[in-house]
Predict the structure.
Amino acid sequence: MQLPQIQHKHHQSTISTRPLLWLRSSNSPPQPSPLASRSHNRHASPSQASAAASQPPFTSLPLRVCHYSDPISIGSSSTASLNLNHHILPKRTRGSTMLLRLAALLLLCAALAAPEPGADRAALFDFLAGVGGGRSARINWAPTRPVCGNWTGVTCSADGSRVVALRLPGLALSGPVPRRTLGRLTALQVLSLRANSLSGAFPDELLALGALTGLHLQLNAFSGAVPPGLARLRSLQVLDLSFNAFNGTLPGELSNLTQLLALNLSNNSLSGRVPDLGLPALQFLNLSNNHLDGPVPNSFLRFPDASFAGNTMTRSTPLSPALSPPAAATPSKKRPRLSEAVILAIVVGGCVLAFAVVAVLLIAFCNRRGGEEGDRVVSGKKGGEKKGRESPESKAVTGKAGDGNRLVFFEGPSLAFDLEDLLHASAEVLGKGAFGTAYRALLEDATTVVVKRLKEVSAGRRDFEQQMELIGRIRHDNVAELRAYYYSKDEKLLVYDYYSRGSVSNMLHGKRGLDRTPLDWETRVRIALGAARGIAHIHTQNNGKFVHGNIKASNVFLNNQQYGCISDLGLASLMNPITARSRSLGYCAPEITDTRKSTQCSDVYSFGVFILELLTGKSPVQITGGGNEVVHLVRWVQSVVREEWTAEVFDGELMRYPNIEEEMVEMLQIAMACVSRTPERRPKMLDMVRMLEEVGRNDTGTRPSTEASTPVGEPRGKAESSSAAP
Ligand SMILES: Nc1ncnc2c1ncn2[C@@H]1O[C@H](COP(=O)(O)OP(=O)(O)OP(=O)(O)O)[C@@H](O)[C@H]1O
């Protein structure tokens, strides 16, 4: 991907961009292409280098670093003004010089008067003084300015008394971490020194930082053992030591890290067997490209092959050829032909796309860096920074002057991340849909978001932004909120909350066995009712003209109250209609053709198909007869019902629940009305809400109770009031 040169808006300094690496196994950040990165793995054996082309499911995004070729920090500029020599200035400037001095003095006084994390300030200074290469003017730690809110990469507690986060990525820091410096930051929760050139053993003093939740030391040159003492960091949620030169075995003591959500030790020189660490909370694991051997421990069997690629580990089910280590150890692995095979595997895995997402995110990040100094994208409202049309809900905007590319965040109740956090996130591919690829990204503060990279957007910038503003304003319990969007010529990104239980499609058709989430009747009714409320609300937007356009089970999730919650609204109108339609097979109303766009009536049809899916447990389109026969759910249900075999249509899994037949039949009738061929005969979504609420009200108390006790038809706070509003 061609990365642009970006001008720093204020200092006129050129930021040269280094190509990023993401989900890659490479030895150092500046690699021109993900496909070429195999040959640059400085710690990996040839086998690892080959396997490095595989796609570990977890990695960091810190992969492009911006360098200011002519950096001038605010601190240094204010110091410069103090040093002005009035003797060489013309008389008329002497007055202003005095003013400047006075201002600087006031600034100093203000700095001294403000509540300061005094001890932490001293520790930070000692760190900077002791670390190699740490005198970069990009580290704007001016003694005259208060630490909190001013010092580069430093975040303080709410009362300003302690430093709680230190993020100094890509600042060319080198050498060992100086002793008795960072260990004094005892309130530190997040430490990120990623993408520097720090070396030496793991800094032991970090092991005393009991409040740490995120430790990001990836992309450095640390060596020696992974210390067992890490187990003392009981609050740790994210540990990323990837792309270093750690060796030795993996300490079993890590099993004490019961809060750990993400563990990335990839691209080191770890060896031996992997102990069975348990780690029940772990969601991301990457041990790829080490020298590990032995079986994949039981507790890690739930992670994909890519987590272990580039080792010689074995698991009960064979590693997929694309990811298995290797044979790559043999010279033949170095041959171009094999490399192509590996590359193909990457493409098949779809993970290469993740690379591009991060590229764009990084571009956006650099754009942000080019914006106002200290411009925190979501940390608060900033008046006047967004020119032109502005949604009242938009919180802040970053961008490069002139091209209009920008990242826009919307207000949200739990918005606690900014773009920088997003860029530092570990990520994995969730899936590929009609509109692009979705990634799950774990931020440094352990927040998980979903980043959706759209493809084949046919709408122009203006239409796109208008639609985003519409979508971003929608707030409803049963509608997945759009948190942020990014638009540039080449990339369009959307940021959503992550729904940990996955989509209703996963719940209905996901793999059978232990991992399967059984969907009881009550849950299905709540899903249908919630989704109906959400869609009904959507239909009231834009003066009652808003269309969802892509209603299907993979776009319905469970909200906190276990009701359906609809996502991906309003995207269909921005896309190439033919591509979108081909992926929504089975949900598409018959009247929608290549030239006719989705309507609210066609939304109702799609919703009807979704209800049939909930009732039957079957996909909207099934291929049978050895791939020769296509069975459409709607037609199948219609034919069965016509033959009066109604009971035959229901999901076998529902048969275990007594006394629900009547409700199932009612719901079937509602669904059948929705999938009428004649659009005008379909009910409105608001009618659907009422009808589905009636289904719940018919409960005579004989229905088996489930863990979620809220009666289906009962008003439920915001969702109910919202649904009543339309
Ligand atoms: N916010 C989310 N939380 C959890 N999983 C999600 C989220 N958004 C999408 N997914 C899952 O990621 C996968 C890919 O989603 P995506 O929306 O890209 O494709 P889709 O839903 O299959 O098709 P379409 O692009 O038509 O919506 C799906 O399995 C989807 O359920």
Remarks:
- Residues 1-93, 318-358, 363-403, 704-726 have pLDDT under 50 and may be disordered.
- The chain has 16 helices and 28 strands.
- The pocket of adenosine-5'-triphosphate is lined by residues 430-431, 433-436, 438, 450, 452, 480, 496-499, 502-503, 550, 554-555, 557, 567-568, 583 (CB under 6 Å).
